[in-house]
Amino acid sequence: MIWNPIKELEKVFSQMEDFYDDFEEDYLPQIMLKEGAPPFDLAEEDGKLILFVDLPGVDEEDVDIEVKGKNVLIYARRDKDIEETKLIKEQRFKGTFRKKIKLPYNVDTEDSLARLKNGVLKVILKRSQDEEKTNIEIE
Q1: How far apart are CA 12 and CA 16, in angstroms?
Q2: Could you tell me the pLDDT band of residue 62, with boundaries at 50, 70 and 90?
Q3: Of 98, 103, 94, nearest to 30 (Cα)?
Q4: Cα–chain-centroid distance for residue 132?
Q5: Alpha-carbon distance 133 to 67, whole Å?
Q6: DSSP assignment of the chain, as one string?
Q7: What is the pLDDT of residue 53?
Q8: Which of 64-68, 93-97, 111-115 has the lowest mean pLDDT?
Q9: Residue ranges covered by each domain of the chain
Q10: How deeply is 62 buried, as exposed, middle or buried, from its count of CB atoms within 10 A (0-12, 13-18, 19+)?
């Protein structure tokens, strides 16, 4: 049998593709959550910042919001809702995670509002000149 380098390259590329597919499907969501995801949107309306953070499966009592200067820190915990022995594949992160979001300016937490509804945390923040550390309660 004659060695065919093209066939060997095709095998390598196929293996790399399988590896990437497995990585993207099984490991990337975990890495993203551990590295500070979940995803968020930040909008501005009438001098207020409106922050939307996806927190599916997280209970209100498992979320803490802290504001310091131009940063919002969101700490959350998602518990396991399925017994591990029954799982065939696992992509959803369970455990504690933190999200740090840099804002364009300092905010005043006194008139701030936070709500968690249908897995989306909505935080409304008013512009401020002071840099102080405070927490926001979820209503």
Answers
A1: 6
A2: very high
A3: 94
A4: 25
A5: 6
A6: ----HHHHHHHHHHHHHHHHHHIIIIIHHHHHHHTTPPPEEEEEETTEEEEEEE-TT--GGGEEEEEETTEEEEEEEE---S-GGG-S---S--EEEEEEEE-SS-EEEEEEEEEEETTEEEEEEEE-S---EEEE---
A7: 93
A8: 93-97
A9: 36-136
A10: middle
* Beta carbons within 10 angstroms of residue 113's beta carbon: 16
pLDDT tens for residues 73-104?
A: 899 888 776 666 677 777 666 778 888 888 98
Assessment of whether the complete model's pTM goes beyond 0.90: no
Q: How many residues does the chain have?
A: 139
Q: Is the pLDDT of residue 109 over 70?
A: yes
Average pLDDT of the chain to the nearest whole number:
81
Q: How far is residue 68 from each of residues 30, 39, 123, 129, measured CA to CA in Å?
A: 27, 20, 14, 12
Instruction: Please count the other Cβ atoms lying within 10 Å of the Cβ belonging to residue 45.
Output: 8
Given the candidates 3.40.50.12780, 2.60.40.790, 2.30.42.10, 2.60.40.420, the CATH classification of the domain at 36-136 is 2.60.40.790
What percent of the chain is modeled with pLDDT above 90?
Answer: 24
